């Protein structure tokens, strides 16, 4: 797969994730909180 194809696949995946999180914010609260807390945990 070419670089352009891989980039297009990543963009589409991010778009789908963004739409799903936007449509179902209560269902996404848990994973979003985990992602928000992960950088300090990894750094410290």
Concise account of the structure shown:
The protein has one domain. It is built from two helices and no strands.
Provide a descriptive summary of the structure in words.
With about 45 residues, this protein is mainly alpha-helical. It has one domain (about 5-44). The chain has 2 helices and no strands. The termini are far apart. The mean pLDDT is about 90.
Write the layout of secondary structure elements.
Elements (H helix, E strand, L loop, with lengths): L2 H21 L5 H15 L1
Distinctive features:
single chain, 0% strand, 44 residues, mainly alpha
**Low-confidence regions:** none
State the end-to-end distance.
Answer: 38 Å
Shape: flat
What is the H/E order?
HH
Structural class: mainly alpha
The count of DSSP E runs of length 2 or more, i.e. the number of strands, is 0
């Amino acid at each position: 797969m070419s670089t352009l194809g891989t980039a297009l696949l990543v963009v589409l995946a991010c778009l789908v994730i963004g739409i799903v999180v936007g449509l179902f914010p209560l269902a996404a609260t848990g994973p979003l909180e985990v992602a928000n807390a992960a950088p300090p945990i990894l750094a410290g």
